[in-house]
Amino acid sequence: xxxxxxxxxxxxxxxxxxxxxxxxxxxxxxxxxxxxxxxxxxxxxxxxxxxxxxxxxxxxxxxxxxxxxxxxxxxxxxxxxxxxxxxxxxxxxxxxxxxxxxxxxxxxxxxxxxxxxxxxxxxxxxxxxxxxxxxxxxxxxxxxxxxxxxxxxxxxxxxxxxxxxxxxxxxxxxxxxxxxxxxxxxxxxxxxxxxxxxxx
Length: 200
Description:
Layout: H1 4-14, E1 18-20, H2 21-26, H3 31-39, E2 44-47, E3 50-52, H4 62-72, E4 81-82, H5 84-91, E5 101-105, E6 119-123, E7 131-134, E8 137-140, H6 142-153, H7 156-168, H8 174-190
Parallel strand pairs: 5-6
Antiparallel strand pairs: 1-3, 2-3, 4-5, 7-8
Helix pairs in contact: 5-6, 6-7, 6-8, 7-8
């Protein structure tokens, strides 16, 4: 007979060793069984409603998956996406390396669980065209991510570097590069972002 842990393995394999309590419940595994597995060291509780199988090797995306699962756990919103500097990091564009994971959730989303200190929540209603799936993760598109970073931080240099890298990596077309450059310049000169001297 298969152990409860073995029943969780196929799920965990899809998520870098992570499973949520609601996913386990769907398999008929109760919270008390999860608690027992955690006490025995077979599972690690990484956030409320999110567990990790400890011997799974963590990869560079594990913390991002953990953040998404945390937001979706316990009837949380389904439409969440890694965003801002975190999205740039997922794409590998720009040399940004945020110490915290940025997530955008719907404005009216109710997050019942206490937020881990390493997650930054942004509230905004994302259109389906603002979100894509990259390496199995929901991520705001390059264009949306760059404009969000610019809006929140005012770091025009970082935003420009990101779109240059995105073009080089083939994430955006030349037309998209030009459109984003125009939008960045408008934001820089019109918005409350740090002003760079306009040439001409």
